[in-house]
C-alpha cells in the first residue's frame, strides 16, 4: 500500500493529472449509461414480456456492436487521429438511451442498445490511448485511474435506476441523457489537450524524430501469447456476464428479494470491481502484469465457487470478494497487451476492449438460453469454475519492469 500511495503522489505531480481525472470522469459517466441498460432488465422483462433468451439477445447485440467497432475505430484513429472522437461517440450513446427509454418492442430495444454499443466502441479505445499518452510512464497507475472511473460508473448505474426509475416507469430513463451532456462537457479539456499533443507529434514527425519502439517478442511468440490472453479474457468475462446480466434475476428467484433490493446487491458487486481496479494497475507497475493477472483470476475462484451455496448475506459478501479480485485483472491484461504492440495503442485497446465485450455478449446470450431451459441457479453452478482457467497465466512471459 505505501508503494501505491507513493506512485499516486508521483502521478498527481504530473501536469497531465487533470486530464487523467477528466478521462476517469468521462469513463465513469459512459459506463454509468451502459449500466442503466442492464440494471433495467427486470423492468424491461416485465414491460415487454421477454424471456431470458431475449434478455441474452439484447446483451449480445449491444456487446457485439461494441466489440466489432472497437478494433476498427482503434485502427482507424491510429492511422488518422480525430480530436472530436469522444464527443461524437457520446452523442450516439445519448440517442440510444432515449430510444431505449421509449422502446415499445424488442426490435426498438435492439436498435437502441446497438447505438449505445457503437458509442461505447468509440470511447474505450480512444480514451485508453489518451490515458497512455498522458501517463508519463506511470501507465499502470494511469490506466487504473481510468478504469476505476468506468467501474465506479457501472456500480452507480443500478443504484440510480433503483432510485430514479424503478419506482416509476421505464420512460424515466430518458433523464440519463443529462449524464451524456455532462460527459460531453467534461470531454472539452481532454480534446484540447489531445489536439495539442497531436500537433506536437506532427511537428516531431516532420523533422524525422518519431520514435518506433521495438516489440518485446518475436512475431510467432507474440501471437502465441495473444492466444493465451484471449483464453484469460474468456475466463474473466464469461463469469462477469453471469453476474452483470443475471445476478438480479438470481437474487429475485432464489431469495425472493425486490427489484430495488436486487439492484442494491448488484451495486455491492460492481462497487467491489471499482475498488479492485484501482489496485490492479499500480500493483502491476511494481510486481509485473503477469503476477497480477494470475493472482486476480485464481483469487476469484474461492468466492465464485462458494457463492451458489450461501444464504443472501453471504452471497452478497462472496460477490464483493469475487468482484474485487476479478476486476484487478483487466488493467493488467490491457497494459500487457499494449506492451506486446507498443506502437499500436489504439488498435490494441480497441481489439481487447472489443474482445471482452464480444465474449460477454455471446456468453450472456448462451447463459440466457440455459437459464430458460435449466433455471437461473444452474448458470451460477456452471460459471463458478471459469476463474480456474486463470492458471494458464503461468505460461505468459514476464514483459514488465519495475517502475520506480
Structure write-up:
This protein is mainly alpha-helical and 404 residues long. The chain contains 15 helices and no strands. α1 crosses α10 (259-287) and α2 (17-39) packs parallel to α7 (139-164). The radius of gyration is 20 Å and the shape is globular.
List the main descriptive attributes of the protein structure presented here.
globular; 404 residues; 15 helices; mainly alpha
What is the global morphology? globular
Order of helices and strands: HHHHHHHHHHHHHHH
> What is the terminal separation in angstroms?
14 Å
Decide which structural class fits the backbone.
mainly alpha
Rg measurement, Å: 20 Å
Instruction: State the share of residues found in helices, binned by percent.
Output: over 70%
Q: What proportion strand?
A: under 5%
Beta-strand segment tally: 0
Average pLDDT: 82
Task: List unreliable stretches of 5+ residues.
Answer: none
Q: Mind describing the biggest β-sheet? A: none
Number of helices: 15
Topology:
Layout: H1 2-13, H2 17-39, H3 41-48, H4 52-79, H5 85-101, H6 106-133, H7 139-164, H8 177-206, H9 219-255, H10 259-287, H11 289-306, H12 312-327, H13 329-340, H14 345-374, H15 376-383
Helix pairs in contact: 1-10, 2-6, 2-7, 2-8, 4-6, 4-14, 5-6, 5-8, 6-7, 6-14, 7-10, 9-10, 9-13, 9-14, 9-15, 10-11, 10-12, 10-13, 11-12, 11-13, 14-15
Task: Summarize it.
With 404 residues, the protein is mainly α. It has helices at 2-13, 17-39, 41-48, 52-79, 85-101, 106-133, 139-164, 177-206, 219-255, 259-287, 289-306, 312-327, 329-340, 345-374, 376-383. The chain contains 15 helices and no strands.
Amino acid at each position: 500500500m505505501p508503494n501505491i500511495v507513493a506512485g499516486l503522489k508521483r502521478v498527481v505531480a504530473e501536469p497531465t493529472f487533470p486530464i487523467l481525472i477528466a478521462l476517469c470522469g468521462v469513463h465513469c459517466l459512459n459506463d454509468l449509461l451502459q449500466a442503466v441498460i442492464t440494471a433495467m432488465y427486470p423492468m424491461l422483462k416485465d414491460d415487454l414480456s421477454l424471456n431470458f433468451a431475449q434478455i441474452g439477445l439484447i446483451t449480445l447485440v449491444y456487446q457485439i456492436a461494441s466489440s466489432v467497432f472497437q478494433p476498427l475505430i482503434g485502427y482507424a484513429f491510429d492511422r488518422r487521429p480525430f480530436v472530436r472522437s469522444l464527443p461524437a461517440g457520446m452523442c450516439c450513446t445519448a440517442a440510444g438511451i432515449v430510444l431505449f427509454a421509449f422502446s415499445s418492442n424488442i426490435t426498438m430495444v435492439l436498435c437502441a442498445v446497438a447505438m449505445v454499443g457503437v458509442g461505447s466502441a468509440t470511447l474505450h479505445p480512444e480514451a485508453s490511448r489518451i490515458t497512455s499518452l498522458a501517463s508519463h510512464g506511470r501507465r499502470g497507475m494511469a490506466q487504473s485511474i481510468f478504469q476505476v472511473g468506468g467501474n465506479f460508473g457501472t456500480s452507480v448505474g443500478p443504484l440510480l435506476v433503483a432510485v430514479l426509475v424503478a419506482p416509476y416507469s421505464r420512460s424515466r430513463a430518458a433523464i440519463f441523457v443529462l449524464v451524456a451532456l455532462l460527459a460531453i462537457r467534461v470531454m472539452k479539456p481532454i480534446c484540447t489537450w489531445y489536439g495539442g499533443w497531436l500537433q506536437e507529434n506532427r511537428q516531431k514527425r516532420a523533422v524525422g524524430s518519431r520514435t518506433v519502439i521495438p516489440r518485446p517478442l518475436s512475431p510467432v511468440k507474440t501471437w502465441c501469447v495473444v492466444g493465451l490472453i484471449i483464453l484469460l479474457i474468456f475466463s474473466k468475462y464469461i463469469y462477469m456476464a453471469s453476474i452483470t446480466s443475471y445476478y438480479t434475476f438470481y437474487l429475485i428467484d432464489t431469495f425472493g428479494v425486490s427489484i430495488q433490493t436486487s439492484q442494491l446487491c448488484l451495486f455491492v458487486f460492481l462497487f467491489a470491481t471499482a475498488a479492485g481496479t484501482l489496485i490492479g494497475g499500480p500493483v502491476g507497475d511494481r510486481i509485473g502484469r503477469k503476477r497480477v493477472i494470475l493472482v486476480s483470476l485464481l483469487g476469484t475462484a474461492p468466492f465464485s465457487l462458494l457463492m451458489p451455496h450461501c444464504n443472501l448475506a453471504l452471497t452478497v459478501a462472496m460477490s464483493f470478494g469475487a468482484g474485487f479480485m476479478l476486476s484487478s485483472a483487466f488493467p493488467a491484461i490491457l497494459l500487457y497487451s499494449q506492451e506486446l504492440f507498443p506502437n499500436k495503442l489504439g488498435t490494441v485497446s480497441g481489439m481487447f476492449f472489443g474482445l471482452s465485450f464480444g465474449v460477454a455478449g455471446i456468453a450472456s446470450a448462451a447463459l440466457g438460453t440455459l437459464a430458460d431451459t435449466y433455471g437461473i441457479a444452474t448458470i451460477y453452478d456452471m460459471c463458478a469454475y471459469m476463474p480456474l482457467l486463470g492458471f494458464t497465466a503461468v505460461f505468459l512471459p514476464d514483459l514488465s519492469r519495475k517502475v520506480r
